Amino acid sequence: MIDLYYWPTPNGHKVTLLLEELGLPYQIKPVNIGAGDQFKPEFLAISPNNKMPALVDHQPADGGAPQSVFESGAILLYLAEKTGRFLPSDARGRVAVLEWLFWQMAGLGPMSGQMGHFNVYAPEQIPYAIERYNNEVRRLHGVMDKRLADSAFLGGDDYSIADMASYPWIGAYDKLPVDFAAFPHLKRWHEAIAARPATQRAYALRQQVNPDAGKPLSEEERKHLFGQR
Questions:
Q1: Which of 3, 83, 199, 215 has minimal CB crowding within 10 Å?
Q2: Which has the closest alpha carbon to 159: 80, 217, 82, 226?
């Protein structure tokens, strides 16, 4: 059994996408980041950066004590290596998937998050920040579109953890729709992943775990989410 410390955010969705594809038994341990659960000592013991997702694998491959893993990219890599799925075994294929996995971790995720913050959550509109992150995310969408013009998926011909890492950050904010007309290959890729049964199961968890998803944040939630505590 795997304990998944989760809240339905783009980074949380990455891991449920993979777990649903793998069919591994797991149970969700909700981490209500609006209520400050990420700062509880028991969570910090497995995720010292007070960020979710994190997991505890009670049946690690080495047969030893339960293995905890934090950071979404590390979790995807851990599970792919454990199961031998969604990460190529040949050296060149593995490199391609890891390139795009780390591209997401260093670029698409953080830049999309900042775009969302300054457009949707910031208490005041800062035109420079809005323009800066809107332009950078659009550039990154262009990078993806160019790659996907020549490849079915980011890592190559097959669906992989690189795709699962990036998918939740495409259209993560309802108020900031992706310009799919400008990026048709990105649109094709996004639709293909959305149609997968495992994707639909993963995203069904959103309302189950957080029925208030999509509602305006309270002041208390803002304090917990945006570093005021």
A1: 215
A2: 80
